[in-house]
Design a protein that fits this description.
about 300 residues, alpha+beta, D-amino Acid Aminotransferase, Chain A, domain 1, OB fold (Dihydrolipoamide Acetyltransferase, E2P), 2 domains, 7 helices, about 15% helix, DNA ligase (ATP) activity
């Protein structure tokens, strides 16, 4: 595997500092909506892509002057954290290392908690307003990691075939990583769900909003039995697996978002063998949430089914 690093990286850096390199310095008004990944199923020639590790962080966008969530809400990062960031729209993940998601999420939701930000960096994976395909954009924004210790670039790799891709995925998972991302080399930045950006993970996962807390039966009497949830695409189902007894006694609130794992879809398009992974407390940065009723348990508005109901 060959690490793709521009041979002209130093020249690019000097050019940016000197002002002779022409890179569009676009501000928030012209920053495109975020590009979203599809699931990789070996549906294309892997050689058409550059591949990087998928970091389990909080997605963040730099509009040239402010750090924003995916939906455009301001993330209150300390001034020293963003000092030295270029006046150039950037896409990345706020990440503090393996197993740091909850700490990073808490920092992103805090107001000026300087110490929590000391262990975090913005890991870049794209610069959406630079002209050209992804490989061309990468050759330019790779130099931005020289600007400040809190800004770094996720390395991109050439992968020869699917066997090599799977070997690397196993290495990433073995050290506690989440998966891999595949960027089509010649693709322009495309807002929305894209055929030019894919994710590869050992287990599929997604997010859903809690619509209702359903009462348990048998050994779960008096506790939560399942959550009635709805994905961003409008699919509703019951999520009843993967919860500890403590989580059943104090379930996620109505209106909150949760991450669940699943193994493909049923013929009706519902997640198969869905199981709870965690509460997405960072989703107040990226999604509008419903008003949470006073009652913790409500009568479900529909009667959806799932193939795994443990109660």
């Amino acid at each position: 595997m060959r690490l793709i690093i521009s041979a002209t990286k130093f020249a690019i850096l000097l050019g940016i500092i000197a002002g002779w390199l022409v890179i569009p310095l676009v501000v928030a008004a012209t920053m495109p909506a975020p590009e979203l990944a599809k699931v990789w199923k070996s549906q294309d020639d892997i050689r058409a892509f550059l591949v990087s590790e998928k970091l389990d962080g909080v997605r963040a966008r730099w509009d040239g002057s402010r750090l924003l969530s995916r939906s455009g809400l301001v993330i209150d990062a300390p001034e020293w954290f963003t000092k030295g960031f270029p006046p150039q729209p950037l896409e990345g993940e706020l990440w503090g290392g393996y197993g740091s998601f909850e700490a990073v999420s808490a920092a992103a939701r805090s107001n000026g908690n300087d110490e929590a930000w000391r262990a975090i960096k913005l890991y870049l994976f794209d610069a959406p307003t630079i002209a050209g395909g992804f490989s061309e954009r990468y050759q330019q924004f790779v130099a931005f990691s020289e600007f400040t210790p809190y800004l770094t670039v996720i390395p991109q790799r050439d992968i020869a075939d699917n066997a090599e891709l799977q070997r690397w995925l196993k290495e990433v998972l073995a050290r506690g990583g989440e998966g891999l991302m595949l960027h089509r080399r010649n693709a322009l930045y495309t807002s929305g769900r894209s055929d030019n950006l894919f994710k590869l993970k050992a287990v599929l996962d997604d997010e859903a909003q809690v619509l209702a807390v359903l009462p348990g039966k048998g050994k779960y009497q008096g506790m939560m039995g399942a959550l009635l949830v709805e994905t961003a695409t409008g699919v509703q189902f019951r999520l009843g697996s993967g919860f500890s007894d403590a989580e059943r006694a104090n379930p996620p609130a109505i209106g909150s978002w949760v991450t669940f794992a699943y193994s493909g879809l049923t013929s009706k398009g519902k997640p198969r063998f869905a199981r709870f992974l965690r509460l997405r407390s960072d989703y107040q940065l990226t999604h509008e949430t419903a008003t949470i009723p006073a009652a913790n348990t409500v009568t479900p508005p529909i009667n959806p089914t799932t193939e795994t109901e443990p109660w």
